[in-house]
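Loading example: each entry is read as two labelled lines plus one structure line.
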Amino acid sequence: MTDATQSDTAFRPKPSLPPPANTVGVVGWLRKNLFGGPIDTILTLLGVYLLYLIVQFAVEYGIINAVWTADTYRECLDINLGEGACWAGIGAWFNSMMYGRYPDEEQWRVNLGGIILLLWLIPFWLPKVTGKIQVGMSAVLTFPFLAASMFIGGDTGIFLHVMASIALTLFVAVWLHVAACYVLGRSLPELLISITGFTDKDDRLHKYVLLGAFAVGFVIALIYHMSWDLVEVQTTIWGGLFLTLVISGIGIASALPNGILLALGRRSKMPVIRVFCTSFIELFRSVPLITILFMAVTMMPLFLPVEFNPPKLAMVIVAVCIFAAAYMAETVRGGLQAVNKGQYEAAQSMGLSFWKMMALIVMPQALKLMIPNIVGSFMGLMKDTTLVSIIGLYDILLMGKAAGQNPSWLGFHTEPLLFTASIFFVLCFAMSKYSQHLERTIGGGYGRR
Amino acid sequence: MKKVSLLALGAGFLASLAITPEPVLAQDSTLEIVKNRGILRCQVGTPAPGFYSLSDDGKWSGFDVENCRAVSAAIFGDPDKIEYQSVTSAVRFTAMANGESDVLSRTTTWTLFRDTQLGLDFTTVNFYDGQGFMVTNDSGVTSALELAGATVCVLTGTTTELNLTDYSRTNSLDINPVVFEDSNVRDSTFFSGGCDAITNDKSSLASTRAKAPDQSIFTILPQTISKEPLGPVVRQNDSQWNDIVMWSLFAMINAEEMGINSGNVDEMKASSTNPEIKRMLGVEGDLNKGLGLEPEWAYNIIKTVGNYAENYEEFMGPKTVMNIPRAGSVNDLWTKGGLMYSPPFR
């Protein structure tokens, strides 16, 4: 029996014809999606025309008629009669919109702080690094103190010295850990223990070794930090995008932990905690953010002794944190309620304590569900921080408005708004993209569908 | 009911906070506080061209900023020991009441209500403003009384709007106000012909005109339909501090009248024989005693900040974008037909 004879006699269908030329390729796609019928065609043509108008205007306003070098807005007007953008002004005001009134020669401190934070967070994206939660915790808990000592400068006081030194030690440790993970494939603690020869010893001794290593690092960092001699920059002159990021950054970093605690408190069976958390959430969620800011900045000093005069920025940050926590609490509670009751009961029947049940069983499931909502709140918070301009903090939006009121730049108000809008778009879009990435990677069964 | 009693307790607590009387400030006088702090806290507004504006290197400057610099020079001999506070007009008086600012110097109109019911004292006037109209030259309008039936661009929720309707009714002009929330939108509407005229304080009209692509086609009409005397404000019940701020301004006005400016003040101090100049510059007498300042306080103001005319030229005069002529206006010296008048230094 040969294949050849069989194939000769077997029924062989004709090879199918290629699909009609107008249903495949570019033409087919166009017909299917854009010109499916008379209404589709009209809508497509209208859409293309609108797009043409928008693009034409944008190109004319933003590129063809734009002025790139000028010393005053009047010079721009003389060149383009207001028909195009005056990007020269953005150049002149760029530093102000980024750093507010922070002195030019000290701005490297802000940049360096930002770079340290980025470096601290990079290990999150490195697949081989272990202990990402610890890395994240170290950044969230100690970086603000390091940043404060760098950005404010001057005589920081012993508390900030200590906290900033802890932060420096941990920062160096994180990167030693990353190096260890990549070069030797072991975590930093393992490496330290094996170097000192305690591998075979009791676990308790391991702890002492790590603590000892940390103490040595801390002392070196403290001596180094004490030697810093930075000019004091009062928080009253902070501004621009830097200020926006400081306020929203601290608000965002504190919102999730505080929100989780408040949400758990609200679902607690202990009446005092439940009543406290519920009233806290309801009180701050039902008042506009601007009211809370007003209370914090203009009303609070009336009730405080004159000697106790906390900086405005500190009050604003506390107010934003409270507000963000109240909103986040309800997002988290929604996530908690979406977790099946069986999960709680299963955890309890395993004999887990409340905190273990929450940390190991419930929260990991709930947080996955909440990612879109959490990121939505963060983006909202970041944009809400522009309200601080009303109480006289020169964030990026108010700085942009101030630019147009300078006698040399009178009338310069569209360009700063466009610039600010594009910065907010980039920041928020990046957050949105990152949340989608998180949903895909840690979402598991609940991931993006 | 437990919940009710808890609520009542909370409400009672809030109420007790709300009815706390006058803010309790330390017993020290403002001068003592400022001297101890080593820095003057001066409140300006969100930037307004001419009066207070922010440069791209973060410095405040302007006509009202000079008041603060004068006070700083009088106290410290250095015009720049100032922490500027810039808040929106909604919270300007609260920021004074809660002790945040030492002096408020920001285009604030002196009215009876504000002087008597806000716990504040107006010192004196450094700029007489007033509401006016601006039209295009093409319209042929030369007087506000010719604006019958015209559409006028105006900011909403301000006394400007009220003044406009009052003026329209009194003179039966039947003006149609077109109201705006944002001054930039109002200005561009006016430039593109959206209304026949625009109304605001004349100093603001000057800055609106400065924004226009072609400034020469606009005219500010001569009529002034409201009185807006602007000047620095201090907290009530500290008359020494009130005196310091007020006389710092008078020193600048009097210096102009006496012909002293930042250029010739050293010469005047050394060689002038005029007894009033000698008293003012601290060569003779002890006029500084009552103010609690150094004898050379007025000299320091004139040397570092300048006299009234110098400041006017720098921020409002014809060489600036504001271009508000001073000669013959109410802001000229009393000797030239204006209202700028300093009590004598004796």
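Residues 18-91 of chain A form one domain.
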